[in-house]
Design goal:
- With 306 residues, the protein is an alpha/beta fold.
- It has two domains: 228 residues, TIM Barrel (Alpha-Beta Barrel), CATH 3.20.20; 55 residues, no CATH class.
- It is built from twelve helices and ten strands.
- Strands 1-2-3-4-5-6-7-8 form an eight-stranded parallel barrel, surrounded by four helices.
- It is globular and about 65 Å long.
- The structure holds ligand LIB3CWND and magnesium ion.
- Keywords: Lyase, Magnesium, Metal-binding.
- GO terms for molecular function: lyase activity.
- Belongs to the HpcH/HpaI aldolase family.
- Its cofactor is Mg(2+).
Length: 306
């Protein structure tokens, strides 16, 4: 951390997860494109985007790709097939070979699902820093989101993020896709709250209509307003608007700098609440501001890279 952000502590290690692009591991052309895209993270999908009879082929392609590609700052996540499928063992073997930043578990409905994978990873020294992400995308997953999130406490703290999957959730609930996601908002908020209660990041669902960038922008703004850290993306065209909506805006950066500077001022030492331009600002706002500035530092460091 290089700026004003360093003088305040925040509860969760900040990472940029504004744009989390998913790529079918079977799709060579898409795989070749990801290193040229400004996304924060890439999910290499072995699950629903890969046909049953092509899973082995997809694993083979992904191994070769990850052994040769330089993903640089982009987090690498592999979405595997669920443990009750015939693909799970081989998918996990691939995860242990590739050692990505995280493994994404689909359709998680119970804490034990996370615990079992944490136990498997725990048997391998090389997988020490490997984290677990969980897709919350079924009615039981939403209902149990808090219990699943809390399981991060008992599984070596590997659980790091939730990703919402609205395609599966719509299928299971019968709620049709509609602008504003009115009837899904309560479920989305439940997942955000559960993630926050246990210090997890939380990523909003994909938007299927990748040509309608106006609708995508609206949905991203809504996701940001609901408290999501970023959005799962299916297409390169969605990267820039996601970075924009989930990244810090200029007015927010200016405000954060003002708040941190004011609280760092010795004249305010010992004060937990101050008046800035007619608004009450508490020390908790300074922590929030420091978190935002840490993200700005990360974005700047990336841009400054030769
Ligand atoms: C949806 C797509 C099949 C569309 O692909 P395509 O027809 O190739 O679109 P374009 O011609 O517009 O593509 C332009 C170029 O961009 C490349 N491309 C496309 N998508 C990606 C991508 N995701 N990553 C990287 N590059 C991408 C194309 O190859 C074109 O380049 P070129 O070939 O050089 O011309 C496709 O976008 C796609 O497959 N998207 C991802 C689908 C996916 O991963 N699905 C699984 C995750 S979704 C999910 O998890 C849902 C969740 O579980 C839930 O329940 O909600
Ligand atoms: Mg799904």
């Amino acid at each position: 951390m290089t700026s004003e952000a360093s003088s305040f502590r925040f509860h969760h290690p900040s990472r940029l997860r504004r744009s989390v692009l998913t790529v079918p591991a079977i799709n060579d052309r898409a795989l070749d494109k990801v290193t040229g895209l400004d996304c924060d993270a890439v999910i290499f999908d072995l699950e629903d985007s890969v046909a049953e009879d092509r899973k082995a082929d997809a694993r083979h392609k992904l191994l070769e790709f990850l052994q040769n590609a330089d993903l640089d700052h982009r987090e690498r996540i592999i979405r595997i097939n669920a443990s009750d499928t015939p693909h799970f063992r081989e998918d996990m073997r691939l995860v242990l070979q590739c050692l990505p930043d995280a493994v994404l578990l689909p359709k998680v409905e119970e804490p034990v699902t996370v615990q079992d994978v944490a136990d498997l990873l725990g048997e391998q020294d090389a997988a020490e820093g490997l984290r677990i992400w969980a897709m919350i995308e079924t009615p039981r997953g939403v209902l149990n989101a808090a219990a699943i999130a809390s399981s991060g406490r008992t599984s070596d703290s590997r659980l790091d993020a939730f990703v919402v999957g609205l395609n599966d959730l719509r299928k299971a609930t019968g709620i049709p896709a509609a602008p504003g996601r009115t009837y899904l908002v309560p479920y989305l908020m439940q997942v955000v709250l559960a993630a926050r209660a246990y210090g997890l990041d939380v990523i909003d669902s994909v938007s299927n209509d990748f040509r309608d960038l106006e609708a995508f922008s609206d949905e991203s703004a809504q996701g940001r307003a609901m408290g999501f850290d970023g959005k799962m993306l299916i297409h390169p065209a969605q990267v820039e608007p996601a970075n924009h909506h989930f990244g810090p805006s200029e007015p927010a950066i200016a405000e954060a700098r003002l708040v941190v500077e004011t609280f760092s001022d010795l004249a305010h030492a010992g004060l937990n609440v101050i008046n800035i331009d007619g608004r009450m600002i508490e020390r908790l706002h300074a922590e929030e501001a420091a978190r935002l500035l840490a993200k700005v530092d990360m974005i700047t460091a990336r841009k400054d890279k030769p």
